[in-house]
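User: My instructor asked us to take a sequence, write out its structure as tokens, and then describe one feature of it. I'm not sure where to start. Here is the sequence I was given:
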Amino acid sequence: MLTAAHRVYRWDRQTSSIFSDRLEDEAVPLLEPALAVYRARVGQPRGQVRNAARLALEGLRPDRVEPVVKLLDDTATYEWPTTATAAERRVAIFEAAAARHPLLEPAEARALMAAAFTPAREAEADAVACLYADYPEFHVLTAFPGDYTAEALRADYDLAQAQALLYAATRVTVEARRDFKHILRYARLSRLIHRVERIQAAGGRRHARRRVRRPFDSGVGYRFVLDGPNSVLRRTRAYGVDFARFLAALVHLADWRLQAEIELRKGWRPLLFTLTSRDRLGAGRGAPPEFDSSLEEAIARKFGRQRAGWHLVREGAVLESGATLLVPDFLFRHEDGTEVALEIVGYWTPEYLTDKLAKLAAVRGVNLIVAVRRHLAVRAGALPATVLPFKSRLLLRDLLPRLEAFRSPAP
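Assistant: Let's start with the prediction itself. The structure tokens for your sequence are:
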């Protein structure tokens, strides 16, 4: 990622909006010479490579040069000696030179330096590079990926600039239509506190308590409010790096909209930063797998999008489970409005199983089917849910009757 010093942005004072920098199509060809520098200069020290890349980017807008070089550096592979060993060698050389002060003869200085290396060798022509080989400026470029293209560099630049702007965020809000489980998982991995609200289009009617909270469909969805523990007491930018990590994962998903409050300086009025999945940040990055297990994939394939009046939605709801949140694997919605959530407990280490069943036991006010292996059916029988035992795979002939049982009888 870039540092805050590499941020390039613009803002609109009238709307209090801020925008991270993005490379135009015309700027992409200007990146090619810098890529060629990194490919051609394997074996040279970092300082020389960076300086050559800066010269190669002469046609690029000046404020973009250093961020691009930083991203190229992060992509490259460098090698350097152990810092402790190099520091000890420098001390030994300086102590030996001090005993012969003043050391005026070049040959004597080279011999003194050569003696400090094991095995002994002639000192390199550049004495500074030899002495300070562990310093970043003198790290040696050993490899650069040949398949790293200008378009890939552009995608990394656009995403990195958005991440760098989030360093100054005090709060981030994400509205989503799908992939709720992934959003919650990414928030936890980024060490962020999240609150979830249901959002619904104006004029939408409330749904009965017994139904699952509906997904972002026809204007219905979920709003995830992300911040950290200290934000309860005061506005803070302490979680900016965590927000940046979260964005790097979020760009893999679809149908989301992010808004962040950006405070560039302490005490300044916040500016609003907005991104959506249509911005295609991080283009080319692979999306996460649609299914967490072969069980889920098999039942989705067999059921299809709809069957017997039921429509299947992948991870289509967020359930409250005490103080935590749970995203069931599937939501089945019938044409008459009945909704049923299905959670598959297919992985059963003792710790995972105990935690999963405890969360499911705390779910209230929804139609819920819990699919478990047959040997766990008795244990799952205490849940406030319909239990669907299975041996190795879920069968439609077992699932459909349980779905139909939730429908209200016809008048």
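For the description part of your assignment, you could build on this observation: The domain at 167-279 is CATH 3.30.70 (Alpha-Beta Plaits). Try explaining in your own words what that tells you about the chain.
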